[in-house]
Amino acid sequence: MERLIRYFVERPMLVMVLVATILVLGYWNTVQLPRETFPNISLPTLMVRAQLQGASARDIETKLTIPIEEAIEELDGVKNFHTVVSDNTSVTTIELYDEFEEGDIDEAELDLRTLLDGIHDFPPDMHDDPTITRMKPREFPVVQVALSGPSDAVVRAAKDLEKRLRRLDVVSRVTLVGLQDPEVRILVDPSRARASGVTLLDVVRAVERRNVSSTGGVLESESRRRQVVLWSRFERPEQVGETVLRFLPGGGAVRLRDVARIETGREDTGLIAHTGGQPGISLVVRKQGDSDILRAVDAVSELVEATELPAGVGAVLVDDRSHMTRTRLSFIATNGSAGAALVALVLFVFLTPTTAVWVLLGIPVAFLGALAVFPVFDMGINMVTLTGFVVALGMVVDAGVVVGERIVARRARRVAAVEGAVEMWRPVLASVVTTVLAFLPMFGLGGMAGRMIGSMPYSVGLVLLFSMLLAFLILPGQLSLGSGLKQTPKRAFIVRLEERYRRALQFALHHRPAVIGVFALIFLTIVIGITPLVPVVVMPQDESEALFIKVNMPLGTPIEQTEAAAAALERQIPAIIGPDLGAVTARIGHQDTDVNSQREQGAAENEAIVSALLDPGLRERTSAEWIEVLRERLVVPPEADLVYEPAVFGPPQGLPVTVHVASNGDERRRETALEVADWLRAIPGVVNIEIDERPGTPQIDLNVDYARLSLRGLDAQDVARTLKAAFSGIKASEHRDLDDTTEFRVMLDPSARVSLDSLLEIPVRASSGELVRLRDVVDPIAIPAVSRIYHRDGWRAATVTAGFIPGSEHTSLTMAERLEAELLPRYAGDPEIDMYLGGEAVESRKVVGDVGSAALLAVVGIAVVIALMLGSFLEAFFVVSIVPFAIAGVILAHFVHGRPLALFAMLGAIGLAGVVVNSSIVMVDSIHRRLANAPDEGPEARRERIIDAVVLRLRPILVTTLTTLLGVLPAAYGIGGFDSSVAGMSLALGWGLA
Fold first, then answer.
1. Rounded distance, CA 599 to CA 970, Å?
2. Regarding beta strands 789-792 and 657-662, do their DSSP bridges make them parallel or antiparallel, or are they unpaired?
3. Where do the domains of the chain lie, and which CATH numbers do they carry?
4. How many other C-beta atoms can be found within 10 angstroms of the C-beta atom of residue 779?
5. What percent of the chain has pLDDT over 90?
6. Total H helices, total E strands in the chain
7. Which SS3 state, helix, strand or coil, does residue 794 take?
8. Using CA atoms, how far apart are residues 48 and 78, in angstroms rounded to an integer?
9. pTM for the complete prediction?
């Protein structure tokens, strides 16, 4: 080590070149690295979506969901899966093992595709294969462009803007929500059709056969080549009315216009999009995977501003995810700058000006050095990596302070620089290694939270590594130049401080039992008396930037009435929330709170969801607090039932209370879910209780009599297609031009769909050509129905969810304990019911358990490193024994500040274990050196040498402790803006050291 240090001390030009290189590379990466709110992690989640237009939820379950779930059961690495079955659609979400990395997820996706391709009994009228979607945060939406105005003009503007947005190199995909494709509806009059001897399927087949084109081949001659094309397509949608359905025996023909009316309109998607209370179309923009979110949103904003929209059409950007990123980056930069200023103040107060300057200049070099190698570890600039920078801010000068102070103390030129650095390399190296070891176990944390913070150990470790290299290879050479090593007397206050410290040490050593007893009493008081009073909330939702209001109208409510109810809420929200509000959006037709899905089809006409997007900056209230205000002040529309839900901040973890009730017995499952909901309602402070399984529109099953069906010569498939055409319609063909694709949909005239009797009069053509009424081959039976069917791991399930009033005594973990003690045992012996917990409680337990294991691993690793350095496991034990007292300080800090113990605070406490032993390592090393010079002295003399050694290291230890404390202080108290996650970690580090 001495030769390496001397090499750099004697080559100041090389040192300057290295520093300049680090600064240039670091600055370049600062400009080029993508900026995000959270890291681009690989979520071990796959989603399978399958569609069958016109099918009921029960039909979808039988024909699509069950075959898909049977295939999923053969897939390796599946932790669990759940399915939402609704009319037309089945969506299955598959959770793979948390340990799966990018390659494992890719392999699972390929295996799943193979399994799905092996399903051969999907219905023949299922046009598209099931799709598989990966959950990739880098592909989540970054902004929405909301258009409002006259409907036709909005459609034109949306399509034009979509093309322009797709041409941006930072945009990967644009989804249009609320856009209804053009459609020609062929509305068949059953009376005229029967009189003309025509069925619904006759109309479908006639349109299919009329609108065709085909290439026959090429005619070749000696002089030219000509292609032969059969062309019988509709040039205009209106031409479909001239389609011949059949010829009459006496001459003449029955044309489509004779039995149906042609209506041009737009597809009924069952979904209406609102922004600011106005209907329109939203363009949901997703950025390219590796693009910078700030640049992507800026490019979209500039394009929208530069685009000339049709008269009467307005455009506004909403749900701008870059706001969160900008706010977090600004917060960290501001608090980091404040922390750096406090660190500089400490250095200039305690050290010589030259030493302080050189140590201080090492801060940007260390941070830019870390940024220079970020691409090697596939890291970007985000809240997690920058939080690591905030944590490392106070520690980055530790190595420089210890080495620089020792070099100056020798008061010579280059010889002192080398000898001082060599003397301190072992304790400094051990200090850096123990600090890095404290953060390394974060790699082992499971769940989404563990994946999210996985880059923090890299950012902390890289900064500390560069700070150590600076202290050993660059700082000695800098201090050996000029007047850096001239003898400078200690400041008077430091001398007085050392003297008082000496007297305190002498007192403590003479009264060791009493001193140890006092510290033990304080420690036990905190652990036994205060720890149970500090709640554990893994991911506090103070930073949640949206809230949702789910609107439920009575069954059978038309979508227009649901829209009116949602609009009434939209109009009230801005006046209530005021400046805290960013925008209000609504989706009428579904209640999907996953803003990343941005579905384009509705699910139920009596449902809507209103989203209040809050300002990501400083707000008067949190989303949970605003929910309570809205609950009191909103005027609820008649017949509307509202459920409030705050948006989840951070990785997906579910709601605070989540109870799954699995059973294939429908009545037993529903009764049990209602019992769980009633049990929760009896607990004060529990709100937003919701059961996902709800009654649906009453259903009439038409049971086919197969004997009569065979007797009449009918095909069951024709009966099924006739029913589908009667209601949702059947796509018969399409007309395409350069701008639009217009579908021809054959369906029964709405006036004929008002009663069961009129439906049963619909004819179906038998194989003999005879027309047979539906009532002659089916028996109608009325049955109850649900709007959606939910599956969990292959079983039908109902899920009961709830939240808590802000400020209540409940947490997801305490409520889970209560559920397991009081409610779940009631159903433990019931063979028909499988009841278990999910959501936030399960994720929190996993994280807390992993944090405990990580803490134990960190402490053991730190102890081993210290033992190897000191050559004694007993002394290593004494050094590590300071860690529990530091953890007690963390608990006391959270109790005093009234904050829950969150994930980032727990991680800060683990990191604290590596930081808090650093001073002890340096101090014990100093004691060893002093005692080695006088091995034969008596106890009193050895005690004085120990005191001298400890007092000698007081200044550097005090400086390193104060710089670490003050470096995180601004972030802990939000001097430059507040972030609960960063504040929790900073509070743990600061108060644990104090």
1. 42
2. unpaired
3. 2-37+325-538+844-993 (1.20.1640.10), 182-266+699-783 (3.30.2090.10)
4. 11
5. 17
6. 34, 30
7. coil
8. 14
9. 0.76
